[in-house]
Write a structure and sequence with these properties.
The chain has 112 residues and is an all-beta fold. The protein is 0% helix and 48% strand. β9 (91-97) and β10 form a beta hairpin. The mean pLDDT is 96.
Length: 112
């Protein structure tokens, strides 16, 4: 089991940007793919983005063109760069490794 942790969330105005990080206490994250999801109370989780160990990426329709997922060369962190944020992006964002381990999440709140 890998203990993942997200950081970088916060309160931002519409149109602003945030960068979320997914780490494992600074250790190398062993993964085939890392997914980012978001969840709001009373709704099903929504797929946001995924990145494979080879750097292949894919995005949910609602964030395409605004969000970018990446990883560092050391494979100790996966990032989610979010731009042109909208109030509808408000959610708890979390990363998940290979469909298994996930972090507790980081809250993103976008004010109008």
């Amino acid at each position: 089991q890998v203990r993942l942790e997200e950081s970088g969330g916060g309160l931002v105005q519409a149109g602003g940007s945030l960068r979320l990080s997914c780490t494992a206490s600074g250790s190398v994250i062993p993964f085939n793919f890392i997914d980012w999801y978001r969840q709001t109370p009373g709704k099903q989780r929504e797929f946001v983005a995924t990145i494979s160990i080879h750097g292949n990426t894919n995005y949910g329709d609602s964030v395409k063109g605004r969000f970018t997922v990446s990883k560092n060369n050391a494979e100790t962190a996966v990032y989610l760069q979010m731009t042109s944020l909208k109030p509808d992006d408000t959610a708890l964002y979390y990363c998940q490794r290979d469909g298994r381990d996930r972090g507790p999440g980081t809250q993103v709140t976008v004010s109008s």
